[in-house]
Amino acid sequence: MKKSISRLSALAGSLVLITSLAACSGSNAAGSPEADFPTRDVTMLVPYAAGGPTDISARALATEMEKELDTTVIVENRPGASGITGLSEASSAKPDGYTMVFSTDDSFVQSVKRTTPYSFESFDAVGGIFTQPYVIVVPSNSEVSSVEDLKSSGPLNYAVTGWANPTHVNQAAIFGELGIKATAIPFDGAAPASQALIGGQTDVAMLDAQAVMPYIKNKDLKALAVLTADGQRLDYLPDVETFEEAGLPVDNQTLTMYGIAVPAGTDDAVVKTIKDAANTARESENFTKLSEDNYMPLLSEEDAANWYDLLQKKSASTVKVMEQFNITVE
């Protein structure tokens, strides 16, 4: 009888121990760093200089994300080497969600254009935010008034905002497919490229809408066609045809999209927390107004979710065009 009681006591003790361990395990899971994220400030790296469109957008987005994450989102600029400096730092950060990067797609594509410390596999995508449409423009006094006129033009000099960047690669593909002899003239950004076009130093340019809209409104430049994410005309340029309508090549064109990524290996729950905050932030009244005021439409829900996949697919066509037209980078 005493042995039976002893065995029952031992069994009861074992059950208590198992229950205690299970309770401790549940408590640890609920109190894990991932479950509690965020418990401190979050850093958003921007691989471009302060004051530019990427920086301004990042700070506006960060302000809205703070409301959702209930913590401070610190924006830090890491300019240099076409975005490589900032993305290199972001890729080597601890994958705990406390470091994210907000950037245009060109900085990610650098990894297929040249040797970089990171690749597409170095990051986990959070999601896309908005896009930067491109507009083909000519001087207001140009005899070219449509894409059809452009197709029949002679040798052209076209402005690009940097060697081997999207404005260069895109235009090389366009003029190559149209059989137009054209020479790229590089400038340090969209503003000097626009001024050179207005001054007659170049004949045509494909530039981002944010940069050229003030000149179009002032009638210094005229728009021939627009490249958009959804293939639809822009609300603020309703009379300007799309690339598709104008019969211009689209498949090998790269459209600038802005998005957020974190170092690869970040916990799924943390990524979801950041993604939910970013989606709510980008649809907020303040951020929506920013996108409208700067002529940068928000990505559709589908494109925002698939932003990183779209980016990787487009990078392959970018490399192909560069090889075809012998566009090299250092």
UniProtKB/TrEMBL annotation:
Which first-to-last residue range defines the signal peptide? 1-29
- Which keywords does UniProt give here? Receptor, Signal
Looking up InterPro entries in the UniProt record yields:
BUG, Bug_dom1
Pfam families associated with the record:
TctC
Name the family: Belongs to the UPF0065 (bug) family.
Q: What is this protein called?
A: Tripartite-type tricarboxylate transporter receptor subunit TctC
Q: Which organism is it from?
A: Glutamicibacter mysorens
